[in-house]
Amino acid sequence: MDLETAQGVPPTPHLLRAVLRLYAEGAVAGHGFTPRAAVTLPRRDPWSHWPLVQELALGLHGAWLTGIDFCSIEEGHPPRDQRAFFAAVHDFNRRHPERALAILYHVGESFSDKSLESAIRWVQEAAEFGAHRLGHAIALGLDPAHFGAHERAETVAERRDQLRYDLAHAGGLRRHGVAVDLGATHRELDALAALPAEATLTIPYDAARLREVRRRQDYALARVRASGAIVEVCPTSNRRIGGIADPAHHPVQRFLAHDLPFVIGADDPGIFGTGLREEIDWVIGAAGLPPGGLRDTGRARLALSQRNPQRPRAGDVAPLAETKRPHFLTPSHTHLTRGPDRRRFVASNPGAVATRPARRGARVRGGVRRTSPLRRCHARAGRGRPAQS
Questions:
Q1: Which of 88, 109, 134, 298 could tie 354 with a disulfide, CB 3.0–4.6 Å?
Q2: Residues paired with residue 209 on neighbouring β-strands, in sequence order
Q3: Could you please report the per-residue DSSP string of 339-356?
Q4: 179 near 208, Cβ under 8 Å?
Q5: Rounded CA gap, 173 and 220, in Å?
Q6: How many Cβ atoms from other residues are within 10 Å of residue 166's Cβ?
Q7: 366: alpha, beta or left, given left = phi > 0 and alpha = psi -120 to 50?
Q8: SS3 content of the chain, % helix, strand, coil (to 5)
């Protein structure tokens, strides 16, 4: 549910309550799936809508509202801008655990306005500032070799942020093979202090720098994994919006290699002409997984959930056993994770974890009936980017 239309006019509270009531009625009718809703807030000003979101979440049908979504254009909206808002949502969750809201944050999907280093940093910061689910996060796992030698541009303000990040994370970066020259970094910061924040810098990338970017990704992947955040992978959408022609470069390869938890989704099936079954099959084929690889993972997690005394339903904001953070599950996204940390993921509905495609629910966003409970903004998908196979 978008809380701001293309015309900037939010839907009425009465309409939003009616949508949640329809979700509740649909669950009672028993159509084979559990509907859940996420509200989309504008990145430029989520605070003006926060009172209404809390009212909806605590209302009669608030159990069907389980997430807050930030999508649409991410350029110009760094995650740090939402740090205080994320904290407010977490405070709400502590006070109302039965109506906790997951934070779904699209980041690292479109980053033509910044360096590769900054794009990676944005994903890490979104996770560490408190986002529970990261939309796409292409920058986090896309093989830098995909770009080849090239140049990128970013503002002086963004470069300053990156240099401060390097200073703060120098130890961890060094352990992952990224050399941080503290003296040179401080000198560059001093030089940038004399330039306007909006001035643009050109950053060249050669093979050596691209290899270093990959090591930076390794560090950020470890940090995101430690944060407990989940990445949303939509293969067709990622390939078309990110222009990823080679399956070996797709971020899912790195996510698997680093045991980073993620969910598979179809994003906008009607726009991209795909479904959940096709997306799962693509991941299996591209990653070279055995036919039963996903089924084994799903059965293992389901067995663990059946031993958990607090068994959430698909779509619930469920506690993660280790991180105690809410986790957003939807029946149209399948979980895929490998490695020893499967115990952190708790789901009792086979449709949310099995490899067979779960039934997709429908939800209303901005007056348009959509097929994915956690789809990106309607406007976001129609920005005129060429479809690439």
A1: 298
A2: none
A3: SGGGGG-----HHHHSSS
A4: no
A5: 9
A6: 20
A7: left
A8: 45, 15, 40
User: Which of helix, strand or coil describes residue 104?
Assistant: strand
**Which of 84, 83, 101 has its CA nearest to residue 92?**
101
Cα 240 to Cα 245: distance, rounded to the nearest angstrom: 8
The single residue listed with the structure tokens 């930030």 is: 70
What is the dihedral angle through the alpha carbons of 14, 15, 19, 25, rounded to the nearest 10 degrees?
A: 50
Nearest to 301 by CA among 351, 359, 348: 348
Handedness of CA 279, 284, 285, 291 (dihedral sign): negative
**Burial of 201 per CB tally in 10 Å (0-12, 13-18, 19+):** middle
Decide yes or no: CATH 3.20.20 for domain 13-148+208-381: yes
The average pLDDT across 323-340 equals 36
Q: Within a 10 A sphere around the Cβ of 245, how many other Cβ atoms?
A: 11
**Rounded to the nearest 5°, which phi and psi values hold at 316?**
-70, 155
State the Cα–Cα distance between residues 383 and 147, nearest whole angstrom: 22
pLDDT at 289: 85
Please check whether residue 120 is in contact with residue 220, taking contact to mean a CB–CB distance below 8 angstroms: yes
Contacts of 101 (CB under 8 A, 6+ apart): 53, 57, 65, 66, 67, 68, 89, 92, 93, 317, 326
Which are the contacts of 247, defined by CB distance < 8 A and separation ≥ 6?
Answer: 253, 282, 285, 286
C-alpha 109/C-alpha 116 separation (Å) is: 12
Q: What pTM did the predictor assign? A: 0.77
